[in-house]
Write a structure and sequence with these properties.
The complex is a heterodimer of chains A (319) and B (265). Chain A has 319 residues and is an all-alpha fold. Chain A has twelve helices and two strands; from the N terminus they run ααββαααααααααα. With 265 residues, chain B is α/β, with parallel strands linked by helices. Chain B has a domain of 171 residues: 3-Layer(aba) Sandwich (Rossmann fold), CATH 3.40.50. Helix content of chain B is 34%, strand content 24%. In chain B, helix 3 packs across helix 4, helix 3 runs parallel beside helix 6 and helix 4 crosses helix 6. The model of chain B has no long low-confidence stretch (mean pLDDT 87). Classes of the chains: A mainly alpha (319), B alpha/beta (265).
Chain lengths: 319, 265
């Protein structure tokens, strides 16, 4: 019996060999089916890119006419006067909205970062297996609550609570929105932060403990430095979530164009402005177009945050 | 210095053993890993433990510094005493772990600089003075025969060192808390023979000042370094005695002869 010539290394990858030497070759249909499947999967991947660019293109197209014809950029960025529907004195200043967004987000992060990272450290390092499972389910449940429900809680629970605790006339303000945003971004931080801590090899923990370090010293001196990139990414993704959130802040922050002087002042955010006004602006009008320019601004902010998070995570991979 | 509660032991011609293990049993979730072993380790001596994989060597080391408590499902009975004190009754387990240095089979460079790796344990023990810390780090790196290679880059990542250098770094780190007992668990598994010989020379030096427990797969390493050797098999002692006897033509057990001469295992 003549043996078939041995495959020359490098001419054909071994994994493509078709069955046993004596078995039948793969049918043409199977080969075709596989290449079709490969193309479908490739299309799915490409479509994600297409959608992102498509959305960006659409938002840009709606706003670009006014961006380059008529809108005063100085007024847009540095004026706090937002009178888009005024007949005699039209003003498109979004400074107050930007400050509104960042004040709510900033305060939310001040609350959420210590809580989120603390919870991630507790879940990953200090709690027993049974507790961990229960807590993780609860945390994921927290992430699944729709934002309109959070807004409802902001109005019906937090509002009177803030009025009573801080003796302020209105409970719909920066603090209210920030608390809600904090609760909404904590689950993201916990689950990504926990993953980052779990990715630290156990040998580090063992080495540290074997040198007489306590558990807390191990966390602070070994695990946090080792996982810092992943933890930073967790924080930034939480920030991205908070900046983009609309419904809860629309309902809970009081929705007043205002530069806040304290956490108890009402504000309005960029997202809430779009949500509240887009339905009433006539299509193609300057007001309509300026709302899309706000959309571009938001897009840029979240894109920047995600990009930084991405670069930071890449940093982890490089180690 | 770092373990202020324990003064250096008085030097006597014939002193009590440094470590006494009595009827030690250990099981992981019902499965026995160590089945009732007893032995003594003399002060300022190198005590070698040989035996095939799964014979309980590494588990035994974990019992010495009580890191076995961190292993889920591990259950231990019997007593281990160091300087006559039961380790389970010591007030501070952290203090115990500083007294018993541990070097793992694969070098674990913590994701810190070389300096911070060595300064880790002293800092954890509350050591603050910068100059003393720097002096201590230098001393430990010198003892581990690593100083000359890294003195110009103390603040680069310890994980960037080569395997043999990292292993010496972990030895320097284990020395940084000035242990009375140094446990080495197959330290030469990931490094080349030349580096292994360098570390063995280091160990001969260190023997003057501390008790060394050496777990090794290389029976010849035990022969080179240890004055007493214990042959563990399946969690039980096959033979324990002077290294010369174990490696002679007539050890107590036929199994020992076969193992050290490479006839099996």
């Amino acid at each position: 019996m003549n043996l078939p010539p041995a495959p020359v290394a490098g001419t054909r990858p071994l994994s493509v060999s078709t069955g046993s030497p004596r078995g039948p070759r793969r049918s043409r249909a199977a080969v075709l089916g596989e290449s079709v499947l490969e193309w479908v999967i490739r299309l799915c991947g490409i479509s994600a890119i297409l959608f992102v660019f498509g959305i960006f293109f659409f938002v840009l197209r709606e706003g670009v006419g006014f961006l380059f014809g008529g809108l005063k950029l100085g007024e847009f960025f540095f004026s706090t006067e937002w009178y888009p529907t005024s007949l005699s004195n039209v003003r498109y200043g979004v400074l107050a909205l930007i400050v509104g967004t960042f004040s709510v987000t900033g305060l939310a992060m001040l609350i959420a970062v210590p809580f989120g990272l603390g919870a991630a450290i507790f879940v990953s390092e200090f709690c027993s297996d049974r507790w961990r499972e229960g807590l993780k389910i609860l945390i994921e449940l927290l992430a699944a609550i729709p934002s309109v429900v959070w807004g409802f809680i902001g109005i019906s629970v937090m509002n009177p609570l803030i009025q009573e605790v801080f003796h302020v006339p209105v409970g719909l303000n920066v603090l209210n929105g920030a608390l809600l945003l904090a609760l909404m971004s904590v689950p993201i931080m916990v689950s990504i932060g926990e993953d980052a801590l779990k990715a630290v090899p156990d040998s580090f923990r063992e080495a540290s403990l074997a040198m007489g370090a306590t558990r807390w010293q191990t966390v602070r001196r070994v695990l946090l430095p080792a996982a810092k990139n992943g933890l930073l990414a967790a924080i930034l993704l939480g920030v991205g979530r908070a900046v983009g959130e609309t419904m809860a802040v629309l309902m809970a922050t009081g929705h007043a164009v205002n530069i806040p002087k304290s956490p108890f002042d009402p504000v309005r955010t960029l997202t809430a402005t779009i949500a509240a006004e887009l339905g009433e602006a006539s299509v193609g009008s300057p007001h309509y177009q300026v709302l899309f320019i706000i959309g571009i601004l938001l897009f840029t902010i979240t894109f920047a945050v995600n990009l930084v998070a991405d670069l930071v995570v890449k940093g982890t991979a490089k180690g | 210095m770092l373990a202020p509660s324990v003064p250096p032991p008085p030097v006597r011609p014939r002193h009590p053993p440094k470590i006494q293990v009595r009827d030690l049993r250990l099981s992981y979730g019902g499965q026995e890993a160590i089945r009732g072993i007893s032995f003594d380790v003399d002060r300022n001596d190198v005590f070698a433990i040989i035996g095939p994989a799964q014979s309980g060597k590494s588990s035994l080391l974990k019992c010495l510094n009580r890191t076995i408590e961190l292993v889920p499902g591990a259950k231990q009975s019997g007593t281990i005493t160091i300087d006559g004190l039961n380790v389970d009754e010591l007030p501070s387990v952290y203090n115990l772990r500083r007294r018993v240095g541990m070097v793992a089979p694969l070098p674990v460079g913590l994701p810190l600089s070389i300096f911070d790796n060595v300064a880790f344990a002293p800092r954890a023990a509350g050591f603050k003075d910068k100059h003393e810390l720097a002096a201590l780090v230098e001393q430990c790196l010198r003892q581990a025969a690593l100083w000359d290679e890294v003195k110009d880059r103390l603040h680069t990542l310890g994980t960037k060192l080569s395997g043999g250098q990292q292993q010496r770094l972990t030895i320097a780190r284990a020395l940084s808390h000035e242990p009375e007992i140094l446990c080495l668990d197959e330290f030469s598994i990931a490094i080349d023979p030349v580096t292994t010989m360098r570390i063995e020379d280091v160990l001969k030096e260190l023997k003057q000042r501390m008790t060394i427990v050496l777990v090794t797969n290389l029976v010849q390493q035990a022969r080179r370094l240890a004055s007493r050797t214990m042959f563990l098999w399946n969690g039980e002692i096959v033979e324990e005695g002077p290294t010369d006897v174990l490696f002679s033509d007539e050890p107590q057990s036929r199994k020992t002869y076969d193992y050290v001469n490479g006839i099996f295992g």
